[in-house]
Specification:
Length: about 325
């Protein structure tokens, strides 16, 4: 009898313990119901390849915004801005990096978005100005962009802004893909192909210094082709979202002086349907950790609330717009 009574009490205690455990688990959920913890928004950020500059900088930005109690952000590699725009539009990713011009192409339904326009892309900030890099061997006899006619050229990965920009620059000097040997390769693939002499030139749209260019220049004597004068004027007239810029000689040992070229900023963007409060919170925590982000890459040293809205040709997300207005820069 005593044994039976003892077993009953043990069962009662177990049932009560399980009940308390269930209540405890319910109180730590992220469904936002009354009595639960604050809902956490899991956000995936499409950046670039691991050998480029976007991926590591994206990781630092994700670490900063993940300090918010309502955001958990993770950086992931992406083939390029075109892919990121499509993934953010579909909701598979919540954040992405791209050239602002690609978002314009998406909205107009041209280029890679021909027949399938996308109007959901909204900007959060501009940062990390990128420069056009054309790298050739010093003894190749290639001295200008026009000399690339008939050459094997690494144009950037399929679905990347690099490939689009490379094609636009070549078109400006009258070179189409029928006049050369384009190879749509990622940064790391281009370096390997360049070392193996499978390509004559590498094209990379990146913030200098970039590791892929440093890698290639450590294996061979290289030079970088300039984009200046009349050629640059023609490109900027045709594609006004690009701008004149220079690559400082200090960024690469093979440069004897600053190099004239063209560039465009990187854009961090999201879907128009993302919560205004969440994007506002993202901006708040990103700029709260500005020092860490500025240290992520030399091109980020001038990043600030003021520069974050420079060069943007894409509509701001309402959450970002609210933040910049409160910050007094909009």
């Amino acid at each position: 009898m005593k044994k039976s009574l003892l077993m009953k009490w043990i069962c009662v205690i177990l049932v009560l313990s399980l009940g308390l455990l269930t209540v405890g688990c319910g109180g730590s959920g992220d469904d936002g119901e009354e009595g639960s913890a604050v809902a956490v928004n899991h956000m995936t950020m499409g950046t670039g390849g691991v050998s480029g500059t976007w991926y590591p900088v994206g990781g630092v930005i994700c670490a900063a915004i993940s300090k918010s109690p309502i955001i958990n952000a993770t950086a992931q590699t992406a083939a390029g801005g075109i892919e990121s725009i499509r993934l953010v539009d579909s909701g598979e990713r919540q954040l992405g990096f791209a050239m602002p011009s690609l978002a314009i192409y998406a909205e107009e339904g041209i280029e890679a978005f021909e027949g399938a326009p996308i109007d959901t892309i909204r900007a959060i900030c501009a940062f990390m100005p990128m420069e056009a890099h054309f790298i050739v061997r010093a003894n190749s006899g290639i001295e200008t962009i026009a000399d690339l006619k008939g050459k094997a050229i690494g144009t950037g990965a399929p679905g990347s802004g690099d490939e689009v920009m490379c094609r636009e620059i070549l078109n400006a000097v009258g070179i189409t893909y029928n006049d050369c040997k384009p190879m749509q390769l990622s940064f790391s693939e281009q370096v390997t192909a360049f070392k193996d002499r499978q390509i004559d030139a590498m094209f990379m749209l990146a913030s200098s210094p970039t590791s892929s260019v440093l890698d290639a220049s450590s294996q061979a004597d290289v030079v970088m082709l300039s984009i200046e004068g009349e050629l640059r004027d023609q490109i900027l007239a045709a594609y006004p979202y690009y701008s004149a810029t220079t690559i400082p000689a200090a960024n690469y040992t093979f440069l004897s002086e600053d190099l004239e070229t063209i560039g465009i900023p990187t854009m961090l963007f999201t879907n128009a349907n993302e919560s205004e409060d969440v994007i506002y919170e993202l901006c708040k925590y990103m700029f709260a950790d500005l020092a860490s982000i500025q240290e992520a890459h030399p091109s980020m040293q001038t990043f600030s609330e003021e520069t974050a809205i420079e060069g943007l040709t894409v509509k701001l997300h309402p959450g970002a717009e609210k933040y910049y207005k409160e910050a007094g820069v909009l």
